[in-house]
Amino acid sequence: MSHDPPKRTFSIELFPPRTPKGEAGLNSALTELGELQPAYFSVTFGAGGTTRSGTYETVRTAATVTGRPVAPHLSCIEGTKESIGAMLDQYAEAGHKRIVALRGDLPEGMEDPGVFRHANELVAFIRQRHGNDFHVEVAAYPEFHPEAASPAQDIDHFVRKVQAGADAAITQYFYNADAYFNFCEEVASRGLDIPIVPGIMPIRDFAQISRFSAMCGADIPRWVRQKMESYGDDKASVQAFGRDLVARLCQRLLDGGAPGLHFYALNKAEPTVSLWHDLRLPGAGAHKAA
Predict the structure, then answer these.
(1) Is residue 1 pLDDT above 50, yes or no?
(2) How far apart are CA 29 and CA 18, in angstroms?
(3) Predicted local distance difference test score (pLDDT) of residue 107
(4) 121 noted as active-site residue
(5) What does pTM read for this prediction?
(6) How far, in Å, CA of 218 to CA of 143, rounded?
(7) What was the pLDDT predicted at 179?
(8) Residues whose CB falls within 8 Å of the CB of residue 194, separated by 6 or more in sequence, listed in order
(9) pLDDT: which is higher, 23 or 77
(10) Whether 271 contacts 204, CB under 8 Å
């Protein structure tokens, strides 16, 4: 008896815009990104201020403009059981079926993230309050979380999130495929079978990516950095090299069995659209693995 091969999930991440110009840019990008028919969009969550309050609005906008499922991020930061529970109820009532559950980055000067200190506690709360109403994704760090005391401790943290009820994981972005495959092997050695979808960051502005990487601990291989820096102000060469580099990374990940790709679009359409077409990814969210 034959069985259908597993489906791969291709998704796209957005963030809540902070200005009217940002809102206009996002709406324009959504029109193009929606045509790719990803499995879902995700929308990041920030602590306090416009970013936090804007998550729900951006989720609603993305769903309306694209007609695709949208997964809001939910963070432990500054939350209470009441406020986080209210957000979960609001998303459930609106028909959203996915949640990305994160601890969140601690703002400078904040030592205590809130009522939930770690993402596994948030995942357990979601399951306790809503059972299996949501497909819950959590974060994974192939190059290990910068705050982890050791690689083994970071794997321990990840295992606790899965045991708390996570359905799947999305990784921090990386440019070293071996780091991803090693992480997956370590998780499997703990007896866990959970889809770990690689997070993909297109490279259009190398200075910007360098800043992001310094903050989140993502490694940029020395040869890539030197190649990029050799182009100087030649943006066309930077973008062409970045596009080819990331496309080859994606292809290696898919060839190696990755269960999909999650693109960090940064509210821009062109980099993700280009990679999507370079890789000949299908619409309607997923395809059967070869």
Answers:
(1) no
(2) 15
(3) 53
(4) no
(5) 0.91
(6) 7
(7) 96
(8) 162, 166, 167, 168, 169, 187
(9) 23
(10) yes
Residue 141's contacts (CB-CB under 8 Å, 6 or more residues apart) are: 148, 154, 158, 171, 172, 183, 217
Query: CA 161 → CA 43, 69, 192, 248, distances in Å?
Result: 20, 23, 11, 31
Residue 224 vs residues 58, 193, 210, 241, 255: alpha-carbon distances, Å: 34, 33, 11, 9, 22
Confidence band, pLDDT 50/70/90 cuts, at residue 106: low
Residues in the chain: 290
Q: How far is CA 210 from CA 60, 153, 214, in A?
A: 31, 26, 6
Average of per-residue pLDDT across 155-181: 96
Which of 13, 78, 137, 143 is an active site residue? 13
pLDDT tens digits for range 210-220: 999 988 889 99
Alpha-carbon gap, residue 197 to 259, rounded angstroms: 6
The third-level CATH classification (topology) of the domain covering 7-288 is TIM Barrel (3.20.20)
Q: Shortest CA distance to 102 belongs to which of 188, 27, 42?
A: 42
CB 243 within 8 A of CB 274: yes
